[in-house]
Amino acid sequence: MQTFHSDSLWTEIERLAKGSRYKMAAVAFTTNDSIVSLGAGDLLVVDATDAAIRTGQTDRLALKRAFRRGADLYSCPGLHAKVMLFDDVAVVGSANLSQASRSKLIEAGIITDEPTAVATARRFIEQLAEQSESIDKAFLDRIGRIEVRPPVRGIVSKRKPRLKLNEDEPQLWLAGLHRINYDDETQAQLSRWDEEATEAISDPEVEFESIQIGGHSRMRSDAKRGDLVIQIWREDRTAKQVDAVYRHVPIRLIRQNESHTWLFVEKRQDADETTKSWGDFRRHLRKIGFPRKVGPNSIQPVSPKLAADLLSLWDV
User: CA-CA distance, 67 to 273, in Å (whole number)?
Assistant: First the structure.
């Protein structure tokens, strides 16, 4: 699904916000926190510089309320993007989180659930957050002392911030996996990493599962956080028949030692309901003209040209 909206943009944003488990946004200015209410597990990157606060383009009280509800907030000078993420749907357009945007201004935006676009939007927001200043209680106390004076004209930063953003599309991987019984020491380490993954996303409702990759697999060296993984799953490693093919999920954390790499991916709530049979998956590979052989043990990247066609298996 990919749709263009103008008059209906805020109606769609409010609908998506109410139905989502977690929300992420990189939005230049925020003055109204009731439109998209941010709370525990949500993330917002905004321009909360002194200039933005002083001119009222970002409202300190709206940030304070979101902070009290448990949202993770970051200030990025020079931010002009308007990108919102509601679970597996991205909104990219012109709208700030403001009452003026909602009721007075002519806005436009694209709403999409195309997996690569959503993964790219998620990685963009996360990269901004990592390189921005965290808005904590001390930050809020400081900007609370700034006198607010409406601007005569818009804010223009004197210098563009130097951020390092990876603008490549996330890679889609096929991974043939099977159940592994770990020893107590490894299981304890995986539990600690699982906690790190949970802290990274700050959403208590999102669960994670680990994927172990060994040997000289290209996935060990090339997989990045934000990439997507289709899991070709067998309960028994000796079985020749695949039990299920699971819908794509994003990599949220990567940890490794000398012999293995562990990828922590989101565990979808609808994982069991959206699986495909091995037969259906292979027929779809043939239908889209997939050039390489795919078996139960395959671990390989999917070319960008074929990624969208392959992911379309889950559109029906």
Answer: 35
The letter for the amino acid at 164 is K
- Distance (Å, rounded) from C-alpha 67 to C-alpha 250? 26
> How far is it, in rounded angstroms, from Cα 196 to Cα 132?
20
Distances (CA, A) of 239 to 37, 222, 277, 279, 297: 48, 28, 15, 16, 11
- The whole-angstrom separation of Cα 276 and Cα 314 is 8
Q: Yes or no: say if 265 and 250 are a contact pair by the CB < 8 Å rule.
A: yes
Question: Residue 68 belongs to what H/E stretch?
Answer: helix 60-68
Task: Supply the pLDDT for residue 121.
Answer: 94
Q: Please identify which residue in the block is written with the tokens 């001119």.
A: 55
Record the pTM: 0.72
> pLDDT tens digit string along 208-263?
888 999 888 899 989 998 899 999 999 988 888 899 999 999 998 899 888 889 99
DSSP code of 148? Answer: P
What is the Cα–Cα distance from 114 to 119, expressed in whole angstroms? Answer: 9
**How do beta strands 43-46 and 72-75 pair?**
parallel
Mean pLDDT of the chain: 89
What's the pLDDT score for residue 240? 82
pLDDT tens by residue, 35-46:
899 999 899 999
